[in-house]
Amino acid sequence: MSVDPYMRGRMNDRKSYVPPFQLGETLYGGAVGEVVDSRADGFEPGDTVLHQLGWREISVVEARQAQNVDTSLAPASAYLGVLGMPGLTAYVGLLDIAQLREGDVVFVSGAAGAVGSLAGQIAKLRGHTVIGSAGSPEKVAYVRDELGFDVAFDYHDGPVHKQLRAAAPNGIDVYFDNVGGDHLEAAIGSLNTYGRVAMCGSISTYNATEAVPGPRNMFEVVGRRLSLRGYIILDHYDRHAAFAQEVGAWVRDGRVKFRETIVDGGVQAAPQAFIDLLRGANTGKMVVRIT
Amino acid sequence: MSVDPYMRGRMNDRKSYVPPFQLGETLYGGAVGEVVDSRADGFEPGDTVLHQLGWREISVVEARQAQNVDTSLAPASAYLGVLGMPGLTAYVGLLDIAQLREGDVVFVSGAAGAVGSLAGQIAKLRGHTVIGSAGSPEKVAYVRDELGFDVAFDYHDGPVHKQLRAAAPNGIDVYFDNVGGDHLEAAIGSLNTYGRVAMCGSISTYNATEAVPGPRNMFEVVGRRLSLRGYIILDHYDRHAAFAQEVGAWVRDGRVKFRETIVDGGVQAAPQAFIDLLRGANTGKMVVRIT
Predict the structure, then answer these.
(1) Residue A119's domain is classified under what CATH number?
(2) Which domain holds residue A172?
(3) pTM exceeds 0.90 for this model
(4) CB A193: neighbour CB atoms within 10 A?
C-alpha cells in the first residue's frame, strides 16, 4: 500500500478536492495486491491489480475500481510510484502544466522523492539541464550520480536562493515545486522571463502549525511574466495512456531509474511510515508491505 | 504627459523589462501633443499624436514613433488612458491573461485607477458580477455608483480578506491584481477551483523599503488548481486593433466611462504628480498638462 504526501491534506477537516478522512473509518489510498477470488470477467486469481481502497489487508474491490498491472515490466509496487499516480503527476506537471520547451533549464525540489525523481529524469531524457534539491547528502548523491541530474544540492546547506543561484547562474526556466516555502521564493527569484512553475505540492507547509511566510518577491511575477499554476492529478487521467507508453518504455529499457523505500510491518506500520514520509525519511516512493 | 505606476520600476537600478531611467537624462513615457512642424508624410501641423518621449515640453519625434489619434472620439488625453496603454492593459489582462469565461465572478483591485476602472467595466459589459477595492470613500462611491461595479469596498475599512469574503460569499473566479500584498493573499483565499489571477501590478510594494510579506496561502494554489500569471503589455500589442475597436465603440456610445485626474503646472509638476499617483491621489488616469 502507498503512503503519499497528498494524504496529509485529507487529515484536515476542511473542504478540499477530496473529502477529509473520517475518524473511525478506514483510510483510502493506492494499493496493489493479488486477486484471491474473483466474480468479475478479466480478473483471475493470481492477477495483480491496482486499486484505491488503501489501508487494509484484504479488500473487496469492484471490477470498475481495479486495474490489472503488468508485473513483467516492473514489480507490482512500481504501479504505486514511477508507473502510477506519482509518475503521472511528474509527467503532466512537467509537460502540460509547466509546458516544458526546448532549451529550458529545469529546477526540481524534492528531487529524491517519487514525483521529483521522475520529473527530473524526464527532463534529462529530453535533453534539458536539470537541477535538484533534496534533504540529505545521501539523497543528493543519489539524485546526481544515479539519476543523472546536472547539479543537486542539500537545502540544509544554506539558503535555497543562494544555492540555486550558484547552481544555475543564468537562471531557470521551469520550476517543478514539491516543497513550497523558501524553495518557491528562491525559484521565483531565479526564474527567467516567461518562466513557469508547476505547483504540485508544498510539503514544507503541510505540518506547519503557524502560517508559513509566503514568497516576498511575488512582484517579480509581473515584470518577468512568470506563470504559477497549481494542479491536481485527478484532472489529468486523459494523459495516462501517453504517460504509460512513454515512461513504461523508459522503465523497460532502464533509462528511467527508480528506488523504493519499503516499510515492513503491515497496516500497523503505515502510520509511522506516513509520518516518516512527511519528514523526508524516504528515497523514492515509500510503500508499506502488507503481507 | 502620462505618469504611470510602471515608471516606478525604472527608478530602481536593476535589470528589468525596460532599462532603468538614467540620472541627468530626460525621463521617457507616454505623451500626446499637437504637431507644430512636420517633415513626415501623414503628419501635418495641427494633428494630434501619441508618442513615448515623455517628460518634455517639445519633442522631436520620428514618424515611426508617432501615432495619429482621433480627437473626435475622445479628448487627446484619453489616448494615455482608457484608449491607450492602460486601457489595453486592462483588456489583455482580463480577456487573455485571466481568460475571462462565462459566469466568472471578477475581483479588481485598484478599481478607481486607470487600468482597474476599465477592467471592471469590461467585465460588467460582458455580464459578470464584479467586485472592486479602492482607497477612499469617494473612490468607492465612484466605482460602485458611476462605473457600475456590483460591490466596492475601501481597503482601509478592514482586512481585505474579510471584506472580500463578505462581498463575494461564494468566492471569486478571476482576480485582476494591480496591488499585490494583502490583496493578493485575500484573493487566493477567495478564488474558486480553477480560478485565475492576472498579475498586472503590485503598487502596494513599489515604495516598500523592506520586503513586503508574501501570500501565506500559496499552498492553496495547488489544491484549487489556481493559475497566477504575470504580464507586461509590451508583449501584447498584437491585440491593439481588437482593443481599439471594441473599447473605442464603448467609449463612443458612453457605455465605458472614464475620469482623469489632470495636474497643471507642466513638467515641473510631474514629479509630485508621480509621487501622488503612487499614494493613490488620483481617480482614473493621472496626466500632467504641459501647456
Answers:
(1) 3.40.50.720
(2) 88-234
(3) yes
(4) 15
